[in-house]
């Protein structure tokens, strides 16, 4: 049911809800609270913690008449308290408050208590009568967007619940097996719990349901690859490739290449994840796999997340593979039509051994003569969708996914089912650790002085700013930054600007200038992302560093230090909170990507780290892959059993599950 038909939701509110991805009554009911306010155990006035949101019980003594204050707002002062102390309440622009509060009655107030122990105060606290608090002791707090507050969402959910009977999607056998509550009950309890135990029961049920759905979807996508590959290969000696390099492959690179080689000889298609920290040399391992495929008479395709990376990969792989007569063809969206035609022809006629392109282009228009190997360079995210699309262009080619996100091995196995994992746990020798410093904006003049000296020495620098949106005014927008800070502070230098609003061709042009050394400094938003390789760049400055996870900062830092000599990463942040300081300082002293990811997990929580943007799995509403890994394991076992019995989920008892899978993976091609 469309959300607009619910009571109290008009066109305007529907638009606001759309921002939260809520379009139907069903969406609304599965928009779960992020927390609850507990009115069942309020603080006496004197015991309320200072400047922390909490619930305080107090009796109202007197409600003042509204007065107009200097800012033009109307202020209503309320004197309240209990036998432990007094509490001054201020309500701004709230004309209804005086009719809501009666002198002599006791209420529950939710908000922060400020002031000092002589004068405690609360500003605009939420108020509940004692009776209301008894009826709804736990009040849901929802993730918010502008114009939609939790009280409003609660009301909408209440309305939706009156209109919608939820069908039970889980087979009854699973409900009994884990003693899970029914869907309808779980939905009521998650939004309107009467006690803590309700929340737990509801969460357990909903988390299980979501993880089972995830596992089923992944299994179904994969079961299509269970058949035999048409590209079974013979072993190939890699010595000629290794010997042609200006350096020796690391042991980790050799091991990963050998693992891949094993896979390529099997009758089933390879499904392998290659994990390695930034700079660990994943490209060379990819080259070895491509080398093997082409020697066996197959074509290989490599998909990159951006055009810039595609161009770069094509270049470096060509250098490695051309000596063996392997023709590398580039295919991107911004190429001229005529060049694209030539490339497509070379691919169709099997003159191209390797095709490098962006996800978008490679998954659409290309006809391969004999595709045997698909490699995806996801940098730090997985795209389930594109991978399956391209894999559909051949009869079950081998697939290799490269990623720089360190996922603990056990978790990776649970997340990606039968995906095999190779890890590059060793950096090429001779890498000098990148000197990393955290500074505040006050030091910016010094910082630019330092940059100047590096530029004098002929090096180049990146400066990363978070956004180009002016509306987020506290952030230094890249454009403004360029104009008002970077250019004035670096007089006479060539400062380029790169941001997400540029067209692909414009981005490529800026990047090329930087690569050729025609720019000294590249100011960019994180769209340049990870993966670009400009060896002469040895400094990276990251503004508003507190905005990123440590893993992301580590990735960005990996942009420098590739060309020998000292390299520097300077994290700029004006946030003085202890936790930010601690995190940035950790990064200054650690170079190991796995350690950094672990710290990130511990300090920011898995929600951030495993946000769907990073791993490319559908975004989960309630489950947490790290925290709920035990349920994930159970769900995986159950999913395997269900798929073994009914691989397409077409039995009546699995109809609900099939619907859930379709919903969770909407936009992905799962069920076909
Ligand atoms: P990433 O794993 O981040 O994709 P790359 O494949 O881009 O890393 O490699 C980073 C740099 O290290 C490249 O310049 C590459 O030529 C170099 N490199 C790769 N393997 C080795 C090695 N065994 N010895 C020395 N340098 C290497
Ligand atoms: Mg790379």
Automatic annotation (TrEMBL):
<keyword id="KW-0233">DNA recombination</keyword>
<dbReference type="InterPro" id="IPR001650">
    <property type="entry name" value="Helicase_C-like"/>
</dbReference>
<keyword id="KW-0347">Helicase</keyword>
<keyword id="KW-0378">Hydrolase</keyword>
<keyword id="KW-0234">DNA repair</keyword>
<comment type="function">
    <text>Plays a critical role in recombination and DNA repair. Helps process Holliday junction intermediates to mature products by catalyzing branch migration. Has replication fork regression activity, unwinds stalled or blocked replication forks to make a HJ that can be resolved. Has a DNA unwinding activity characteristic of a DNA helicase with 3'-5' polarity.</text>
</comment>
<protein>
    <recommendedName>
        <fullName>ATP-dependent DNA helicase RecG</fullName>
        <ecNumber>5.6.2.4</ecNumber>
    </recommendedName>
</protein>
<dbReference type="GO" id="GO:0005524">
    <property type="term" value="F:ATP binding"/>
</dbReference>
<dbReference type="Pfam" id="PF17191">
    <property type="entry name" value="RecG_wedge"/>
</dbReference>
<dbReference type="InterPro" id="IPR027417">
    <property type="entry name" value="P-loop_NTPase"/>
</dbReference>
<keyword id="KW-0067">ATP-binding</keyword>
<dbReference type="InterPro" id="IPR011545">
    <property type="entry name" value="DEAD/DEAH_box_helicase_dom"/>
</dbReference>
<dbReference type="InterPro" id="IPR014001">
    <property type="entry name" value="Helicase_ATP-bd"/>
</dbReference>
<dbReference type="Pfam" id="PF19833">
    <property type="entry name" value="RecG_dom3_C"/>
</dbReference>
<keyword id="KW-0547">Nucleotide-binding</keyword>
<keyword id="KW-0238">DNA-binding</keyword>
<dbReference type="GO" id="GO:0003677">
    <property type="term" value="F:DNA binding"/>
</dbReference>
<dbReference type="GO" id="GO:0016787">
    <property type="term" value="F:hydrolase activity"/>
</dbReference>
<dbReference type="GO" id="GO:0006281">
    <property type="term" value="P:DNA repair"/>
</dbReference>
<dbReference type="InterPro" id="IPR047112">
    <property type="entry name" value="RecG/Mfd"/>
</dbReference>
<dbReference type="Pfam" id="PF00271">
    <property type="entry name" value="Helicase_C"/>
</dbReference>
<dbReference type="GO" id="GO:0006310">
    <property type="term" value="P:DNA recombination"/>
</dbReference>
<keyword id="KW-0227">DNA damage</keyword>
<dbReference type="InterPro" id="IPR004609">
    <property type="entry name" value="ATP-dep_DNA_helicase_RecG"/>
</dbReference>
<keyword id="KW-0413">Isomerase</keyword>
<dbReference type="InterPro" id="IPR012340">
    <property type="entry name" value="NA-bd_OB-fold"/>
</dbReference>
<feature type="domain" description="Helicase ATP-binding">
    <location>
        <begin position="263"/>
        <end position="424"/>
    </location>
</feature>
<feature type="domain" description="Helicase C-terminal">
    <location>
        <begin position="418"/>
        <end position="602"/>
    </location>
</feature>
<comment type="similarity">
    <text>Belongs to the helicase family. RecG subfamily.</text>
</comment>
<dbReference type="InterPro" id="IPR045562">
    <property type="entry name" value="RecG_dom3_C"/>
</dbReference>
<dbReference type="InterPro" id="IPR033454">
    <property type="entry name" value="RecG_wedge"/>
</dbReference>
<dbReference type="Pfam" id="PF00270">
    <property type="entry name" value="DEAD"/>
</dbReference>
<dbReference type="GO" id="GO:0043138">
    <property type="term" value="F:3'-5' DNA helicase activity"/>
</dbReference>
């Amino acid at each position: 049911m469309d959300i607009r038909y619910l009571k109290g939701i008009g066109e305007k509110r529907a638009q606001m809800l759309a921002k939260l991805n809520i379009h139907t009554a069903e969406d609304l009911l599965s928009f779960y609270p992020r927390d609850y306010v507990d009115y069942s155990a309020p603080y006496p006035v004197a015991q309320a913690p200072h400047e922390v949101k909490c619930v305080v019980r107090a009796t109202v003594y007197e409600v003042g008449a509204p007065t107009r204050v200097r800012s033009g707002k109307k202020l209503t002062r309320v004197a309240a308290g209990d036998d432990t102390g007094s509490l001054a309440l201020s309500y701004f622009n709230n004309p209804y408050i005086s009719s809501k509060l009666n002198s002599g009655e006791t209420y529950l107030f939710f908000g922060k208590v400020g002031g000092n122990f002589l004068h405690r105060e609360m500003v605009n606290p939420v108020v509940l009568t004692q009776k209301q608090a008894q009826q709804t002791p736990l009040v849901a707090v929802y993730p918010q967007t502008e114009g939609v507050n939790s009280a409003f969402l609660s009301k909408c959910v209440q309305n939706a619940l009156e209109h919608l009977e939820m069908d039970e999607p889980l087979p009854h056998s699973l409900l009994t097996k884990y003693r899970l509550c029914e869907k309808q009950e779980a939905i009521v309890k998650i939004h309107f719990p009467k006690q803590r135990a309700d929340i737990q029961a509801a969460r357990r049920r909903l988390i299980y349901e979501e993880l089972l759905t995830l596992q089923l979807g992944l299994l179904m996508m994969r079961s299509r690859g269970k058949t035999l590959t048409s590209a079974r290969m013979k072993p190939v000696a890699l010595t000629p490739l290794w010997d042609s390099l200006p350096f020796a492959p690391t042991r980790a690179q050799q091991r990963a290449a050998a693992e891949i080689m094993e896979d390529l000889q099997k009758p089933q298609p390879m499904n392998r994840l290659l994990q390695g920290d930034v700079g660990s040399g994943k490209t060379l391992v990819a080259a070895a796999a491509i080398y093997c495929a082409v020697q066996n008479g197959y074509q290989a395709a490599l998909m990159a997340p951006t055009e810039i990376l595609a161009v770069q990969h094509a270049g470096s792989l060509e250098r490695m593979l051309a000596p063996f007569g392997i023709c590398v063809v580039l295919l991107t969206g911004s190429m001229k039509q005529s060049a694209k035609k030539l490339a497509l022809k070379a691919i169709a006629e099997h003159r191209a051994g390797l095709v490098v392109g962006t996800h978008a282009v490679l998954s659409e228009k290309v006809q391969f003569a004999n595709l045997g190997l698909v490699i995806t360079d996801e940098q730090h995210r997985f795209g389930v969708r594109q991978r399956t699309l391209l894999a559909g262009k051949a009869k079950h080619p081998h697939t290799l996914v490269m990623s720089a996100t360190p996922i603990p091995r056990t978790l990776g196995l649970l997340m990606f089912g039968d995906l095999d994992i190779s890890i590059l746990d060793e950096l090429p020798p001779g890498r000098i650790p990148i000197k990393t410093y955290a500074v505040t904006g006050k030091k910016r003049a010094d910082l630019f002085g330092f940059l100047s000296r590096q530029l004098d020495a002929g090096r180049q620098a990146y400066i990363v700013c978070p956004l180009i949106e002016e509306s987020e005014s506290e952030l230094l927008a890249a454009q403004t930054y360029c104009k008002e800070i970077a250019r004035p502070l670096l007089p006479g230098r060539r400062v380029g600007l790169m941001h997400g609003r540029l067209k692909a061709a414009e981005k490529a042009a800026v990047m090329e200038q930087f690569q050729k050394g025609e720019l000294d400094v590249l100011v960019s938003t994180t769209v340049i992302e990870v993966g670009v390789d400009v060896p002469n760049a040895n400094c990276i400055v990251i503004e508003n560093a507190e905005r990123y996870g440590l893993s992301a900062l580590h990735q960005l830092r990996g942009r420098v230090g590739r060309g020998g000599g000292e390299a520097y990463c300077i994290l700029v942040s004006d946030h003085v909170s202890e936790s930010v300081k601690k995190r940035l300082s950790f990064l200054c002293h650690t170079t190991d990507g796995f350690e950094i990811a672990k710290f990130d997990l511990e300090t920011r929580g898995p929600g951030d780290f495993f946000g769907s943007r990073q791993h490319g799995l559908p975004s989960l509403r309630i489950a947490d892959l790290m925290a709920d890994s035990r349920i994930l394991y159970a769900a995986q076992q159950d999913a395997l059993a269900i798929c073994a019995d009914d691989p397409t989920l077409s039995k009546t008892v699995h109809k609900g599950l099939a619907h859930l899978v379709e919903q969770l993976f909407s936009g992905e091609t799962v069920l076909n």
